[in-house]
Design a protein that fits this description.
Structural class of chain A: alpha+beta
Number of strands of chain A: 8
Radius of gyration of chain A: 19 Å
Distance between the termini of chain A: 46 Å
Largest sheet of chain A: 6 strands, antiparallel
Largest interface: A-B, 18 and 18 residues
Strand content of chain A: 15-25%
Helix content of chain A: 40-55%
Strand order of the largest sheet of chain A: 3-8-4-5-6-7
Oligomer: homodimer
Chain lengths: 220, 220
Amino acid sequence: MLSLVEENYLKAIYHLSDAGKSAVTTNALADNMNNRAASVTDMIKRLSTKGVISYEKYRGVNISEKGRRAALKVIRKHRLWETFLVEKLNFNWDEVHEVAEQLEHIDSPLLIEKLDSFLGHPKVDPHGHPIPDKHGRIHEVKQVQLSEAKVGTQGVLHSVNDGSPKFLQYLSKIGIRIGARIEIVEIMEFDGSMEIIIDDEERVFISRQASENLLIREAT
Amino acid sequence: MLSLVEENYLKAIYHLSDAGKSAVTTNALADNMNNRAASVTDMIKRLSTKGVISYEKYRGVNISEKGRRAALKVIRKHRLWETFLVEKLNFNWDEVHEVAEQLEHIDSPLLIEKLDSFLGHPKVDPHGHPIPDKHGRIHEVKQVQLSEAKVGTQGVLHSVNDGSPKFLQYLSKIGIRIGARIEIVEIMEFDGSMEIIIDDEERVFISRQASENLLIREAT
DNA sequence: ACTATTTTTTAGGTGAACCTAAATTTATAT
DNA sequence: ATATAAATTTAGGTTCACCTAAAAAATAGT
């Protein structure tokens, strides 16, 4: 059994390791969790004892299969709750993260199964992120950072990397939503900003930073 | 700001004091929280420092106005979540308590307001208990323990005192639900058990212990 | 009224999850 | 290659929420 704090660390490790593909350093974790490195070392040892990560001193941590499953359970709950908040309670997509951070730790398999059916077994959350099924399976969709695409690329906004209220409010303001059609008109050499057309209507300029956080599925 | 554990103590104090009407002893609290008396003394001191209870050594604790408001907020959340679980997620009324014990600590006023409207501003939870409004006001309904009524009494089951799964499953089994009409046919002198008619149909015998936990609104 | 019993508190200890300061290991730069 | 810098760990300390054992106060019984 993992504590609430342990679950949060594990989730951070999962995300920082890009779903287990790479190792995570102590400092990266400390940064992400807003804790000191020494505290992270403490926790790492505990998580290692519990078998959810593997750890070699000074070498960073890797999530184990057991840890991956635990992390995906929390992520499944987080994303289902976010969907509930937006679809049923009419939250805006920029208001859900903090609340879902709390709800994701509620421990009741029955609740999650019932919530899942209540929502109609959604595949993605309001930010376009896939919701793992009860066995921890995710159907990843091939998507590209807008910043990596070239002029002329057309696609559909599939998800956002940055879920912060500030970013999401900015997107709403300029008319970008999940599912919107996006076409790259021009890319500015000097700062990487780009001009795009949204839904064949609006032309807007977005910064390089913004385009890095927009993931599109390219039209073929 | 109260911790999760502090909220649980405060809620227990509220209930054990009959909504603040009487003092609560250390042992009663220890019993209720499944902790040792020494631990309770610790916590009592902390709650007293925070101003949510008043405490005189060896004299038990009394909830303060500030404490009462805090307790009612938790109770409001608990009962709204129970209603959600039963009305929207199709939980049985005997399955909701444990989950609601977790959900009641989620801290988001916006969430609770939205949940309240989603549910249509319910006045009572699935066990017939009144849901405090956002200002902590409760509309108590005049109700009597079935065990205190006399032969011939007719009324409607309004709420249950004991919310344990075992009791609720028993009630379901013999056909008793909130809102059912109940008429007392006979009371056995020797053990206080009684024969009742449910919804003018079923005749059943229930123990004194059961009748003490059934609260009816008498028909006038 | 005084002793025995019960209730409550105090004293001191534990693990979880943090901290700072110091020591150690690894990485970087010339 | 070695000195310096950066990253990480160790050592020791804190608060919260529990514990046991012992002491103190309140209550009950004769």
